[in-house]
Design a protein that fits this description.
- The complex is a heterodimer of chains A (290) and B (323).
- Chain A starts with 37 loop residues before the first helix and ends with a helix.
- Chain A has one domain.
- Chain A has ten helices and no strands.
- With 290 residues, chain A is an all-alpha fold.
- Chain A is globular.
- Chain B has two domains: 2-216, Rossmann fold, CATH 3.40.50.300; 221-280, THUMP domain-like (Alpha-Beta Plaits), CATH 3.30.70.
- Chain B is elongated, with a radius of gyration of 24 Å.
- Chain B starts with a strand and ends with a helix.
- Residues 302-323 of chain B have low confidence and may be disordered.
- The chains are: A mainly alpha (290), B alpha/beta (323).
- At the A-B interface, helix 1, helix 3 and helix 4 of A face helix 2 of B.
């Protein structure tokens, strides 16, 4: 047995000697080498998203819109003598969420496109040469933030609306309706934001990408509204059914149309579109110069 | 150590970087020179894996950049001062970089201190002057305590105190055994910092040599003479077979290092000399000579490029517009 070693505080004092691998001459840093992984990129993106004011602004406006409009709609109805005939009271949260989704879209786009606008992307990609990892980390962090904030706001307004409208003859929503009106619609909006983030990474220009996304949300519905011709009736119907506002309303089972997506369909649709866009964005990132 | 082999970048028909092969060695400051548009920044972006080379290869200590798991500990780069989000504080900017490479947070405070930004660490980067932005960029480069440092035009926007600081910083980093690679189009700046020079023009390698050799090979030496007895001296020199060039305001110039011979000739003919000084053309001139054909954006001048005497330090470019 050798003499007992004094206990070394291994964790507290990094082993300065065990630095870099192949000897290429020159300086050797005392900072230990770390094999970085997605976790490091996630920590970095989390710092980034919480350290810019645009996050606070967009999410703040989002919460104000969702809660404010949701409350307003419910208060107006509950103070009137209107009879709701067993309607789903959660659907009064829809208006605020529809408007609020613009904020989530904006934040999503800014998460990627603002790095191109400021030049930060060069610093980011130099620090993490795995471009797919950067986009994945941004996506995960943004999706988490967007989902949690939407869920809190949508959940709050759902409970308030349900209790306010109880006396107006609104029905008591089933467990399935609660799930769709809170978690379901929050997942949908967070995915819509994630799609915006991916579009921001592809277009690399904040204003351009926001315009594209707002157009994608509103254009089908607006175009369909003015499609009077009989021969275009089928197109008009599809535009209505698959427009993003209508897909969102499916979560409250008060769709504009009887046919088209129903149940959880909208979620699968946007999840598939987002997955395809993500794969395309990664391929583009790998190909293009930063 | 950075090794480039056959590095080429084409944008359509235009060749930005053409078959560059050289190595940047540790322990010295290597200057990377070229006129505007020569391909310096493109080369540096390819070194950092930001731009994909059309052909060829760059290796950082033997590895491709995208194989580096924690690249900031291998190579720190200042590409341009504003490669950051203006809404983020200096501290958070460095923190997110540190986190992405698993660098301890304590390093953020250390590098802020090194570059002298501790007092504004919580301030947003968009309120920073160009010089402060440059310092923050340098802090980012130093964050991982890397073995290789790369600075693209680091003195841009710095005040004299800042320029002095970065010169000393680069020298001390190299003295610690690090590889320091710095680009510039300011020759006078390089003369003060670089030990080795890599010169490119229109994407091609023009020189890869030590600073002293570069000056020796690319500049001419001449003797500068002033005398009140101009005509007689001209005769004497002519008889001795020495060619004299008049360069205005009574100054005569003789190519080559013939100052002893001229001095003796003047003494034996009892001529008064007010000045007899051997001159070495400055680095700017050597650089201009070397890159004369490959300057991307030429100022119009029909006359062949003159080698103007260096009366004082001029910005390069000033000289040739006169010609």
């Amino acid at each position: 047995m050798s003499t007992p070693q004094p206990p070394m505080p291994q964790a507290a004092v990094p082993n300065w000697q065990a630095a870099p691998g192949p000897s290429y001459g020159g300086y050797t840093s005392p900072i230990p080498v770390v094999r970085t992984h997605l976790g490091h990129a996630l920590a970095s993106e989390w710092t980034k998203i919480k350290s810019v004011r645009s996050t606070i602004w967009t999410l703040g406006v989002f919460v104000v819109l969702v809660v404010g409009i949701g409350l307003l709609a419910a208060v107006v109805v509950s103070n009137s003598s209107s009879e709701l005939h067993g309607e789903n009271p959660l659907s009064y949260g829809f208006f605020g969420l529809l408007l609020g989704s613009m904020c989530i879209i904006t934040l999503g786009v800014l998460t990627t496109a603002s790095e191109y606008g400021t030049g930060m992307i060069r610093t980011t990609m130099t620090a993490c040469p795995s471009r797919g990892r950067v986009l994945a980390a941004k996506s995960i962090v943004f999706f988490g933030v967007a989902f949690v904030v939407t869920l809190v706001a949508a959940g709050f307004i759902a409970f308030v609306d349900a209790s306010l409208l109880e006396n107006n003859g609104a029905k008591d929503p089933s467990a399935g309706e609660w799930l769709k009106g809170t978690v379901g619609v929050s997942l949908y909006i967070a995915l819509l934001g994630l799609l915006s983030l991916i579009v921001g990474s592809i277009i690399r220009h904040s204003a351009g990408a926001i315009t594209v996304m707002i157009g994608a949300v509103l254009a089908p519905l607006v175009i369909a509204l003015f499609m009077f011709s009989q021969s275009l009736e089928d197109v008009r119907q599809k535009l209505f059914e698959y427009s993003i506002p209508n897909q969102m309303s499916v979560f409250y089972s008060n769709s504009l149309t009887e046919s088209g997506p129903s149940g959880w369909d909208p979620l699968w649709i946007i999840a598939s579109v987002t997955a395809v866009a993500f794969a395309g964005a990664v391929a583009l990132l790998e190909q293009r110069d930063v | 150590m950075i090794e480039l082999s056959g590095l080429t970048k084409r944008y359509g028909d235009k060749v930005a970087v053409n078959n560059l092969t050289f190595a940047v060695r540790p322990g010295i400051v290597t200057g990377f020179l070229g006129p505007n548009g020569a391909g310096k920044s493109t080369t540096m972006r390819m070194m950092l894996g930001l731009d994909r080379p059309t052909a060829g290869d760059v290796r950082i200590d033997g590895q491709h950049y995208d194989q580096l798991k924690d690249p900031l500990k291998f190579i720190g780069a200042l590409l341009d001062a504003k490669a950051m989000h203006g809404g983020r504080s200096a501290f958070n900017h460095l923190l997110c970089l540190a986190q992405s490479n698993g660098i301890p947070n304590s390093r953020v405070h250390e590098v802020l201190d090194t570059v002298g930004l501790t007092s504004v660490a919580k301030k947003k980067a968009k309120g920073f002057s160009l010089g402060m932005g440059q310092r923050l960029g340098i802090a980012g480069a130093l964050l991982g305590d890397p073995r290789i440092l790369m600075f693209d035009e680091p003195v841009n926007g710095l005040d004299p105190e800042g320029i002095h600081w970065i010169r000393n910083l680069m020298k001390s980093l190299a003295a610690q055994g690090r590889t320091v690679f710095v680009s510039s189009h300011l020759m006078s700046e390089m003369a003060l910092t670089a030990d080795h020079l890599v010169v490119i023009g229109q994407g091609r390698l023009l020189a890869d040599t030590s600073m002293a050799d570069f000056i020796q090979q690319n500049s001419r030496s001449y003797v500068r003479i002033r005398t009140p007895q101009r005509e007689r001296l001209l005769d004497v020199l002519h008889q001795a077979g020495i060619t004299v060039v008049e360069s205005g305001s009574g100054v005569l110039e003789v190519d080559g290092g013939k100052s002893e011979q001229i001095g003796e000739l003047a003494a034996s003919h009892q001529l008064v000399l007010h000045e007899l000084s051997p001159q070495q053309a400055s680095l700017e001139e050597a650089f201009m000579q070397l890159t004369a054909e490959s300057v991307e954006y030429h100022a119009h001048s029909d006359a062949p490029l003159p080698v103007a005497p260096a009366e004082q330090q001029q910005g390069w470019g000033d000289g040739w517009k006169k010609g």
